[in-house]
Design goal:
Radius of gyration: 16 Å
CATH class: Alpha Beta
CATH topology: Glutaredoxin
Distance between the termini: 57 Å
Number of strands: 5
Helix content: 40-55%
Number of helices: 4
Order of helices and strands: HEEHEHEEH
Shape: elongated
Oligomer: single chain
CATH superfamily: Glutaredoxin
Number of domains: 1
Largest sheet: 5 strands, mixed
């Protein structure tokens, strides 16, 4: 039993150390991808595997198109996601319309048009 408590404390400390910058900085949006005139809000989570797969696609589209992706971490920027009733990640918001799920390059380009 003591080993499980010690393991729990260790895991908690590792999580606290890894995410302490996010917990105390309050940076929302966390990252910006691209510098175009059109803005897309991208909601993600560090615990979402689909979000990890989405990031290289976002970076590629941001480099090719005239768009800026504002990345909001729903775990640490809840005040940014709550007013839009974001229910899942990854999700994108363009002109107050939310699109959920992993998007390929073509789908992202259609979304920003």
């Amino acid at each position: 039993m003591k080993a499980w408590v010690a393991l729990g404390i260790l895991v908690g400390l590792i999580i606290l150390i890894n995410f302490s910058g996010k917990l105390f900085s309050g940076n929302c949006p966390e990252q910006m991808h691209g510098n175009g005139s059109k803005t897309v809000k991208y909601f993600s989570s560090p615990f979402c595997m689909a979000c990890w797969a989405q990031k290289p696609i976002i970076e590629k589209v941001a480099a090719e198109e005239n768009v800026t992706f504002e990345e909001y971490d729903v775990d640490f920027c809840r005040e940014a996601a709550a007013p839009h009733y974001v229910r899942g990640v990854p999700s994108f918001m363009v002109n107050d319309t939310i699109k959920y799920g992993l998007q390929n390059e073509q789908q992202l380009k259609e979304l920003i048009e």
